[in-house]
Structures are given as C-alpha cells and as structure tokens.
Design brief:
The protein folds into two domains: 208 residues, 3-Layer(aba) Sandwich (Rossmann fold), CATH 3.40.50.620; 86 residues, Tyrosyl-Transfer RNA Synthetase, CATH 1.10.240.10. The protein contains 16 helices and seven strands.
C-alpha cells in the first residue's frame, strides 16, 4: 500500500447515503434517526505512507481529491507510518523526518486541519488493539488472496517480505478504516480489493458479535426496560445493531501521469518532479524528457496522444493550450523543446503557491508537528469510542460485570 487512492480531478457524483438494513416491520422509534444516518454516512478515511517529499503524481492522484473531499465530508487523513514498516522495517532512521516532509506538502497543497482530522497512525495506539482483535477472526486464506500480496513480493524481491506484518497488513488497513466507521474510502480500481476485504472483515465481526449500544433497551423513564437476552430470536435480530458499517469504495479514474522517462512517476525510478522542486529544477528535469518516438527530426510530425509530455499537458494545461499543442505537434509546427517549455510554465504556475505556503513549515517545522499532534488527539478520542463499543460487543469491556448465575 503506497497511497491508498489514485484519483482524478473531476467532480465525484453525489452518492446516496447508505442506509442500514431495518426490517419493514421494525418499530419506527427503534430505527436510527435520519439525520444521524446521514452524518454517519459522510465520513471518509484515507492514508499515505511517509516517503518524504511528495511529487506531482501524489498531488494530482491524491491530494487534489482530499482537498475537495474535506469540504464535503468528515475526513480523517493519516500518515501510515506503521504500514511503512511492512516493507521497510529494517531501517526506520528516516521515518520521523519523512513524516514531517510529507506533512509540509499536505498542508502546503491545501489540506486544512480545521476541516479534516490529520494525524499519525502510530500516535493512535488503539489501531494496534483493533488490529489484534480483528486478526483473531480473519481467515488466513483471505489475506493470501489479496492481489497486491503476491505482486509486491514479486516486485520487491530484494527485501525479505516473509513476515507476519506484511501478510497481515490488510487487517491493519481494515482496522484503520473501521476504527472511524468510515462510510467511503477513495481508491483507484487497483485498490478495490483492499476495501472489499475490509467489508468482509466488518461483516464477519458483525455476524459474531452484537452491538453493545443496544444490549439494554430502556423503557419509559427507564422503567420496564429489557435486556436483549430476554427477547425472542425474531425481536433480537430486528433490533441487532451492527458495530461496523461496511465501507464503500469511492471509485474515481486516475490520470496517467508519466515520469520524465515515460514510466509511471516514482521517486524510486528517479523520474519524478517534486512539489518542492524550484523552477530551474523543474525545467532541467523536463528538458530531456522522452517524447513521441516518431519525432526523430524537428520537421517530423508527432502525436500528443503518444507522447509523455502530451500526457502532462492534459493534466496541467488549459484546453486552449492543449489545442495549440495538438496543432503544433501534429503539423511539426513546434518542436519538442518548445512543447516542454509550455508544460513547464504550467507546472511551475501550480507549484509556486504550494512552495510559498511550504516555506512557513520549513522555517518552523514544529507548526506542522503540532497540527499532527492535535489531529492525533482528536483521532484518539474517536478511536476510544469505537473500541469501547467493540469491547462491549465482545463481552470484553474494561468495567466490572456481575457474573451471570449458572443454573444447576
């Protein structure tokens, strides 16, 4: 799991609130109030591994969507530092510095800590407890069939990934999502399997345990209440409350954002343009960027649809400029260097305000750290509520309970 989401800049369709199933003959007063249902179904969670400074692929593939979502949903965005250990456990020397560098980019790009809860995963230890509880009931076969399990083992052959942590990271990811009862998780098509296993784990937990919220139904003025164990099976099933909602994937297409060598942009390939790169560095990196192989000579026509530079134009340039690129490239009216210069102008125009905002945090890193700490405190408060409900539903609450009398 790198970034959990690969998302496009287009506006998402309005999603109808997901309603919990309530039998038709259930008393109206026992249903979840409509306003509470809608509030509970407008929560989004997403995270990103701390890999240090982010590149423009992270910006168009994740951050732009997060920035928009924070205005429409209750959002929890977290630094997935424990997830980073699943593949990079041997060297943790740069984890903290990478967290700060990534936080600088998040905040500079436009994430607002007053609109969203921004926190560090390891600073909310409740994630570890929920991960443990969920791991007790997650079948091994579910983990082995996750597509990225075999894919990453194949891609990262230089690392020893025969570890419990690597195999079980989908359970930790499920704990991350279910901890905040997220209704939606923004993902690309290649990440849908992770949301699906979270849904399966939530469903399995709900089947095993009764929601502690309604273990006792009060009567009028709390008189004449009834415990669920005193109800018949039909009444019990009608009133049973699921502890966890099943999150829905928020599917959005991802733009094809190539690196300077034409492959997918990645810092590990050395082909990325960082959000923090100054203008001169952006132009230096773009100058040798690969183009349409048909344009061997300046007079050869080409096609922006076959050119990585053309792909960058489609993301960063205006419709008018894109039309000019198509006209100039297909007729050999412009050269590749001129075309690269145009896209560099547009990328720099996007990066300049981000870099200006970033300087505030570079000059005083404690500002970013304090935002992460405050967000972690809010996340811990929400996590405490969920864990209390989980423990209660499992009969493992921390409070004293009078032992039930065992009949002779």
């Amino acid at each position: 799991m790198h970034a959990w989401q690969l998302i496009w800049r287009c506006r998402l369709p309005k999603l109808a609130p997901r309603r919990e199933h309530v039998p038709k003959d259930s008393p109206k007063e026992n249903r979840m109030p409509e306003e509470i249902q809608q509030a509970a179904n407008r929560r989004v969670l997403s995270g990103m591994r701390p890999t240090g400074k982010l590149h423009i692929g992270h910006y168009v593939g994740a951050l732009q969507n997060w920035i928009r979502l924070q205005n429409d949903y209750e959002c929890f965005f977290f630094v997935a530092d424990w997830h980073a250990l699943t593949t990079d456990y041997a060297d943790t020397s740069r984890v903290k510095s990478n967290i700060l560098e990534m936080a600088f980019d998040w905040l500079a790009a436009g994430l607002d800590h007053e609109k969203a809860t921004i926190f560090i995963q390891s600073h909310v230890p409740q994630h570890a407890e929920l991960h443990l509880l969920l791991s007790m009931m997650t079948p091994l076969g579910w983990l082995e069939r996750v597509p990225t399990y075999k894919d990453q083992k194949e891609q990262l052959k230089e690392k020893d990934l025969n570890t419990y942590g690597f195999l079980g990271y989908p359970v930790l990811q499920s704990a991350d999502i279910l901890m905040y009862k997220a209704s939606h998780v923004p993902v690309g098509e290649d990440q849908v399997a992770h949301v699906e296993i979270t849904r399966e784990i939530a469903r399995r937990f709900n089947q095993f345990y009764t929601g502690g919220r309604i273990s006792y139904l009060p009567g009028e003025n709390d008189g004449g209440g009834v415990h669920l164990r005193e109800m018949g099976e039909k009444e019990f099933m009608a009133m049973k409350a699921d502890v966890f909602p099943e999150p829905q994937p928020l599917l959005t297409p991802a733009p094809r954002l190539p690196g300077t060598d034409g492959r997918k942009m990645s810092k590990s390939y050395g082909n990325s343009i960082l959000l923090s790169d100054p203008e001169a560095e952006v132009r230096r990196k773009l100058k040798p960027m690969v183009t349409d192989p048909a344009r061997v000579r300046r007079t050869d026509p080409g096609s922006p649809d076959k050119c990585p530079v053309g792909d960058l134009h489609k993301i960063f340039s205006s419709p008018e400029k894109i039309a000019e690129v198509y006209q100039g490239c297909t007729t050999a009216g412009i050269g590749c260097l001129e075309c690269k210069s145009w896209v560099a102008d547009n990328i720099v125009a996007v990066l300049n305000p981000i870099q200006e905002r970033r300087r505030k945090y570079e000059e005083n890193p404690k500002l970013a750290w304090d935002i992460l700490e405050a967000g972690s405190a809010r996340a811990r408060a929400a996590a405490d509520q969920t864990l209390a409900e989980v423990r209660e539903s499992m009969g493992m609450s921390l409070g004293y309970q009078v032992p039930e009398t065992v009949a002779d």
